[in-house]
Design brief:
By secondary structure, the chain is α/β, with parallel strands linked by helices. The protein has a domain of about 55 residues. It is built from 3 helices and 4 strands, in the order αββαβαβ. The radius of gyration is 28 Å and the shape is elongated. The chain starts with 15 loop residues before the first helix and ends with a strand.
């Protein structure tokens, strides 16, 4: 007498419980973690950087302005004579573009651009001016400095 065995399926690995556990762990860590958006990050000083001379560089200085738009100075330091006297981001970008273009292709062409920004200038503003610098000159050495004064 021959006994017929039921067709047994191959034992498999069930993925659904693993996915459920993964999502539960993800939700737990999202709920349990404490996000601090205002935390200060101390950056280490650069150890292997070359010094940039100011005489070979176009310098643009940024400081905090009224509202969300930073004040732009076309030169080294905060001076009323070099202030771009507009709060319009488009006008500021046009002034910076013209200034950098004049300095890069003038009588004594510059090869570096230094963007100095006070520590209270929003990174969005620094990125905006950095994009302008990148659009003016393709092969330029670009440096960003953070100034301690407000």
């Amino acid at each position: 007498m021959k006994i017929s065995l039921p067709n047994e399926a191959e034992p498999g690995f069930q993925m659904a419980p693993m996915i459920d556990i993964t999502f539960l762990l993800l939700i737990f860590f999202i709920v349990a973690s404490h996000m601090d958006a205002n935390s200060q990050v101390e950056l280490p000083p650069a150890r292997h950087a070359d010094a940039v001379t100011a005489k070979n560089a176009v310098i643009v200085t940024m400081s905090t302005g009224n509202g969300d738009v930073a004040q732009i100075y076309l030169g080294d330091g905060v001076d009323d004579n070099t202030l771009v006297r507009t709060d319009s981001p488009q006008d500021q970008e046009a002034a910076v573009t013209e200034f950098i273009d004049q300095q890069m292709h003038g009588a004594t062409p510059k090869e570096n651009v230094i963007l100095k920004a006070s520590r209270n200038v929003k990174s969005r503003e620094v990125s905006r001016i950095a994009r302008v610098v990148g659009s003016v000159a393709d092969d330029v050495h670009f440096y960003v400095a953070v100034l301690d004064e407000g």
